Amino acid sequence: MSAPDEADGESGLLEQARRGSLFAFEEIVRRYQRRVYATAYRIVRRHEVADDVAQEAFIRAHRNLDRFDTRRPFGPWICRIAANLAVNHVRSPEAREDALPDGHAETPSAAPGPLQGVLDAEARALLDRALGELPAEQRAVFCLRVFEEQSYREIADSLGIEVGTVMSRLSRAREKLREALAPYLAPVPRRLGSQP
Amino acid sequence: VSAHVRDRLSLYLDGEMAAGARSEVESHLRGCAACARHLEELAAVDAAARDLPVPAPPGYFESLPARVRARLPPARRKAPPVWVWAAAAGIAVAALVPVVVERTRAPLPEPALIREQAPPAIVITPPATVTAPPERVTLAAKDLGSIKLKAAPAPATPAVPAPAPFEPRAAENAAAAPPASAQVQKHVGPWAQAPAGAPAPDSARSETAPMEEGRAPKQVQGQADAEAKAEREQDRRPGLTDAVATFARAPSEETRYRALLARRTATAAEDRQLHDEWRALAASSPTGAHADEARVRALDALLAAYRREGEARDRERLREEAGLYLQRGDAAQPDRVRAILEAAGLPPSLQ
Q: What is the ipTM of this complex?
């Protein structure tokens, strides 16, 4: 899905980039960099790797602009490229899924969720850790569905797996995360406004 | 209450269920509080995950677009259609290559006839017509068809290169400087990524030699050399030579920049080395496209060294160089540099 501001002049920029304008492509990078980086980071879990993945995703997109239908939104496409690269990295033998070192600032989240105010720092850390402990394939499917809101078919196509596999991986991922968060989830209405 | 539907709740949550199955699940949920709560919890997990922050270092998103851009090819152009190449080749041959060919007084037979009539011994004993005093004529464009068949000297072949499989740089080079000479080819060659073992001029001659069976090989080669020399003379025109020289220099800075971008460091000493190389790159091309990024990258490397070992000298040097950067009138990334200063525990304003 692309936000309205992203869609503004997007196809024009893409056309210019296709014709060789680096300025136009740089503007595209500027518009999508947070989303692409977030997609990569949520899968690889390390800034250095997410940075590499994000850059590579944009470079590949640039290389393949001629094959991209500019009438379609750019965001899902570039995020799928990033997700693919990220999954490939996590699958690679040299991948290290170490925790991010302290000292990094945090970018604010896009929108508050229903547990805003309930999930304290401990719960966030718990969920974050549980997300990090998911198998990379499950994490990738979860990220593309939950953060990118892609359909099962789109996820299957971008990761080269069957729709049924998407379904089962997503279901398992959600169950694991639910179990990890169980102390903070049950039952939601009664916990609102109270400390865990 | 029907059988629990927990294993289908994820699918239901995503709206990916067929209408019949969806009604079935909804019917169950109305009568089963446990499954209904399970569904709420799954939805809450999604929402909570969306609420998780994504960490990134300060100034990261300020620099990413420029870093991506620095890694892109200088310009992207579509490969021209084949007919454009053909037309360009014709124009180049007609307008840029002064072709001087030797003609015997007696009219040459048609090429096909030459092949049929030429005896094998002709290679050793040139026919009398070849040794007769040649008449040098410059052919007009209308004669070029026969030149291609009869003379086809080796240097003329690189003068009109066949369109290689499209590479942005090769196409760009072709557009930037008319590939009208062997000299241009010499410079463009490495950019065009000619395959290893590509025929050298001599071997190119030997490939064209069979077309010259009506002439002695030495005579043909001498003629080709003369024509190549004439072409090289043409190519020594100042404008073209300068353009080629500028063109040939271009990749070195870009290559260095990309190599430094790809460099990974593991020790403070490597960080300092990287810092020095970034500085050297900026100094070698102070107004170049990558100079500003190179200056900031040098500071990044110093910060990395300081973070690894906490050496005061790294911090002092960082303070000094960042101060100089912020005083520059052409500093394009002052905020990023201030973020670097803050990360090193230095005040963001050093004025």
A: 0.78
